[in-house]
Each structure stands twice: as C-alpha cells, then as structure tokens.
Amino acid sequence: MAKWISKTDGLKKLQRYCAYQDRCHQEVRKKLLDIGIYGDDLEDIIVDLIEDNFLNEERFARSYARGKFRMKKWGRSRIKRELKQRSVSDYCIRKGMEEIEEAVYMQTLEELIFKKLAQVKETEPYQQRRKIADHLIRRGYEVPLVWDQVIKLVPDKPKG
Question: Any idea of the CA torsion for 37, 41, 43, 47, to the nearest 10 degrees?
C-alpha cells in the first residue's frame, strides 16, 4: 500500500496524470485509489479536476474514438464497446462517434478489405469473403456493412 498522501499532493499528481492525456472518470478513480486516496478526498479531487477542465469525459470519448479509428483502424462497434467498458455515458459515446467521418470510415473499410484479400490464401470466393468479413467484424465493423462491402468488392471468380 502506498504511503499516506495529502489531498493537495494527490490533486497535483492527478492534474499531471490528466494533462498527459485525456482520461475517463474510471481511470482517474482507479489512479486515486491506487495512490491511497479514498472517500470524500477522492470525490473532492475528481470535482476539482472537472472544474479545472483536467477531466472531461466528452473530450476523452472524442479523442479515444478519433485515435483508435485513425491509428488502430477499429470499427465503431469496437470503439463503442471499449468506451462502455470504461463507464463512459451514452451521450459522450455518441459525441465520440461524431469524430469518425462517414466517407473516411467507408474508405478505411474498403482499404482493409483489399489488404486482407491480398493476405488470404483461400482461392474459393465464398471462403475468401468469409475470412475477410470475420476479420473485419472482429475489428469492430458492423456486420451488415461489412458483408455489403465484401460482396461488392471481392470478386466471384476464384483468384489465380
């Protein structure tokens, strides 16, 4: 267990923690518990962080959605699921989803389909489509959207 830490020191520590990158309330609460701050002091620090704009869940949801889509190419379903696991409100999740432009989303999905098609060893078209669709669904893309695009973009004729 951590040594006793004052409320003021805890606030300074968490201000640095939140300034480094956007955090959700759950991460901040866990960090405070990890450094040994509980009860009213914990709640007071969270309130101070929100008032001083170090902690903003909508900003967190927006940057999280933007980052995971751009860097890891995750689909909307996966991003929503991850935000829900972090106890982010539905309102903030909706705001986060606004960061993903529809045209860019569709273009990314298309690029991922062609990238996976080049990697698939199967020669039978149905098997190719299934493997590509399974891969994209695991990455968090919506099932109907994936299948529409895979059927549209993956040829019926066997490759080779």
Answer: -120
